[in-house]
Specification:
single chain, 391 residues, mainly alpha, two-stranded antiparallel ribbon, elongated
Length: 391
């Protein structure tokens, strides 16, 4: 939870605040607005102007006591996910990066709609975009309102989006960078003001529709917060494995395998080359005349080599047809521990790592986000699947 000074935007002159905005607690009948003040008093009420040309205002009230509904929490998770998508789009080569402007605007607009719903505000649909929310949610117009920050940056984003969408005015790389900066600052400053939490603390697991995967993701976050990073990373590895197993298995398909399976999964723990050689080896016998020396050893090596290659190809094909980024998958497997089970307790996974295993916070966040991305990708695939007409 943020401290009081952080929630309301830093230290300020309390006497001047009471003088400008009226008696917040009580004692005055009327509260003057900014427009009714003299220019000097209005400037003092606004506070110092930032380097970006925006006024650094202190809100009269921060809406942190009202609990966030489960649906709005899911909406916030989607907004954060949409913002991340915009960032990824901004890194694409031109002109593909220009579409990030549309995504950034969608994320901001959805945030403002959810904020109005959360606060119980009524905004006029016919008002211009900026006036509709930045004035509609302001404390001067709404008793439980919040003074949103970043109006000029969002105004630039809105103009950029309208020009791009309605007049085919390409934004350009500098405008994309500016839109990304304005959007990030908007979320960082206003999420604590409206919802009482930091934007980066919004849990993206809320948008995962797989119940078991969502539970694993939350359990991993809890373990990591408790200092059990090995168990947290192992839990993410288990979550990914369960996702893939659910996708390649299909009880209604022949042999219980979906089109993404590419055959039965090859067991991870197969026979070693020396074990295969020992199985193939037989004492000298008349029927083995003409057999080359050490044939068992050669055949064992060929078998294990073909098995390992086939296993890697099967795993790679499953990932690629499902649209999983193979390079991110490789990093995920290198960061997460190996998972194994015992016959005595098949429900309790065992995690094994190399000596010196010590993933940092960024690596944990990457692995968690990777599982979320895969879960969303599989949900999209399943939603688009069209079963046969007779089923």
């Amino acid at each position: 939870m943020l401290g009081a000074k952080q929630r309301i935007g830093g230290q300020h002159d309390a006497d001047r605040h009471r003088h400008v905005f009226g008696c917040v607690v009580g004692g005055c009948r009327h509260r003057p607005t900014l427009s009714s003040l003299k220019p000097e008093a209005r400037k003092r009420a606004r506070g110092p102007e930032s380097l970006l040309g925006r006024w650094s205002r202190t809100p009269r009230r921060v809406a942190i006591s009202k609990p966030i509904s489960p649906q709005n929490m899911k909406n916030l998770a989607f907004i954060r996910l949409l913002h991340r998508q915009g960032i990824e789009q901004s890194l694409l080569p031109e002109p593909l990066s220009f579409t990030s402007v549309l995504t950034f605007h969608d994320a901001v607009e959805m945030f403002l709609i959810v904020a109005a719903e959360h606060l119980g505000a009524f905004v006029k649909d016919r008002d211009p975009f900026i006036k509709r929310f930045f004035e509609g949610l302001h404390p001067s117009n709404f008793a439980d309102g919040v003074e949103l920050q970043g109006q000029y940056g969002i105004k630039r984003l809105n103009d950029l989006r309208n020009g791009f969408k309605h007049t085919a005015g390409f934004p350009g790389p500098n405008a994309v960078l500016e839109a990304k900066t304005d959007t990030a600052r908007f979320f960082e400053e206003n999420t604590p003001r409206v919802f009482g939490l930091v934007f980066d603390d919004i849990d993206l697991a809320e948008v995962v529709q797989h119940d078991q995967t969502r539970a694993r993701l939350k359990a991993a976050a809890q373990l990591d917060s408790e200092g059990s990073r090995l168990e947290a990373m192992g839990t993410l590895a288990v979550a990914f494995e369960e996702l893939m197993n659910d996708q390649v298995n299909d009880n209604e398909a022949p042999r219980g395998l979906s089109a993404y399976s590419f055959g039965q999964r090859i067991p991870r723990s197969g026979l070693r080359t020396d074990e295969v050689q020992a199985t193939l080896y037989q004492p000298d016998h008349p029927s083995r005349r003409g057999t080359p020396a050490r044939a068992a050893q050669t055949l064992a090596r060929e078998y294990t080599h073909i098995r390992d290659v086939t296993k890697a190809l099967q795993e790679g094909m499953r990932l690629m047809v499902l649209g999983v980024d193979f390079h991110q998958y490789q990093r995920f497997t290198r960061l997460t521990p190996d998972v194994s089970y015992t016959y005595a307790n098949p429900e309790a996974p065992l995690f094994s790592t190399e000596p010196g295993y010590a993933p940092n916070q960024d690596e944990f966040d990457f692995c968690r986000q990777f599982v979320i991305t895969v879960a969303l990708r599989l949900t999209e695939i399943n939603a688009r699947a069209v079963p046969p007409s007779w089923k």
